[in-house]
UniProtKB/TrEMBL annotation:
Range of residues in the leader sequence: none
Entry protein name: D-alanine--D-alanine ligase
Record domain ATP-grasp: where: 109-317
Annotated InterPro entries: ATP-grasp (IPR011761), ATP_grasp_subdomain_1 (IPR013815), Dala_Dala_lig_C (IPR011095)
Length: 340
């Protein structure tokens, strides 16, 4: 990831992410380094050419891939996975096909809808002068960002004038098209999945919105997620979801189905909204969800009785199991898969 502020070729100032990517890497590396017999090397990369140079210097047995952008562009996370796939070295996380599908929200929704997964009606919009007819209320999101980038108090719109203004603002700020999605007003749940080839569904979490200031829409904004001192963050705590048995089965089923249809592997999170009838809709799929020890994924794992070290170890073992030397490597660590 780039630093928070970085000069680019045009001389303009590009803002980087505030999501603590470096801190996540430090936590993952410290956990891996504590494993018996493990040797860990860390190489931050900024440009695609540096990915190959880093691998060439170390020739690792496995790569723990935490790349979410290169040169400040989230589209290049796909390129990083594509480069790694060509090196005949196992790496953690989803492949470049799944990453690309999830990165482009309109494309992900089309794939899910064709597979029978319920998603809100979604259209891609290039700018404020090309807005089709949509149903209100609607929510406006950048087409290819995650971590609530581009989501603010104005993201939920209730008429065409507000929609045009929000589209113009997000296109100008994020320099990319947007998606306009039917806003599903209801409970927001997160379904985390862990493992490969058959992932386990971890106990769902829920974002509660009761503490938000009056008039604030029930959405997780950028402030909510990354600025803990704000009212938006304090008012949107994450808790264990309390669901009736039928609700839980439906939520788990739609989360697993979305994960499988989009081809995710090792870990990921599916965000779900329940409408007024309790019907689950997938509103986002994140193949690179936050792996920090205090993030929602780790909390979901803890509800399943898994420590942070368990989570990182399971992700790593999944990648090792896909490698050409997987039997030798796993047996050397006492983790060989059961035979028969």
């Amino acid at each position: 990831e780039p630093p928070l502020a970085q000069r680019v070729g045009s001389g303009r100032l590009r803002l980087g992410r505030e999501d603590g990517s470096a801190a996540v890497a430090e936590s993952v590396l410290a956990t891996l380094a504590a494993a018996p017999g493990a040797r860990v090397a860390h190489r931050p990369v900024l440009r695609p050419s540096e990915v190959l140079a880093a691998i060439g210097d170390h020739r690792p047995d496995v790569i723990f891939n935490l790349c979410e952008a290169l040169d400040g562009d989230s589209r290049h996370e796909v390129m990083c996975a594509w480069l790694l796939a060509g090196l005949d070295l196992p790496f953690t996380g989803s492949d470049h096909v799944a990453l690309r599908s999830c990165l482009h929200k309109a494309e992900a929704n089309r794939i899910l809808a064709r597979a029978g997964v319920r998603v809100p009606e979604t259209v891609r919009v290039d700018g404020p002068d090309r807005i089709p007819d949509v149903a209100f209320p609607a929510i406006v999101k950048p087409e290819r960002e995650d971590g609530s980038t581009g989501i603010d108090r104005g993201s939920v719109v209730r008429d065409r004038a507000a929609l045009r203004d929000q589209v113009a603002a997000v296109v100008a700020r994020c320099r990319q098209p947007v998606v306009v999605q039917r806003y599903v007003h209801g409970r927001e749940l997160s379904v985390s999945l862990l493992g490969w080839p058959t992932p386990r569904v971890l106990p769902p979490g829920e974002i509660t919105f009761q503490g938000l200031p009056e008039g604030h829409p029930h959405v997780v904004t950028y402030e909510s997620k990354w600025r803990p001192e704000t009212a938006a963050s304090i008012g949107t705590p994450s808790t264990a979801a309390v669901l009736r048995p039928l609700e839980l089965r439906r939520v788990v089923a739609v989360g697993r189905r979305a994960f499988e249809v989009l081809g995710l592997r090792d870990y990921g999170r599916v965000d779900v909204r329940l409408d007024e009838r309790g019907t689950p809709y997938v509103i986002d799929v994140n193949p690179n969800c936050d792996l920090s020890p205090d993030a929602g994924f780790a909390r979901a794992a803890a509800r399943a009785g898994l420590s942070y070290a368990d989570v990182i170890g399971e992700i790593l073992r999944a990648a090792l199991a896909r490698g050409p030397r997987q039997g030798d490597l796993l047996r050397a660590r006492g983790r060989a898969p059961a035979r028969g």
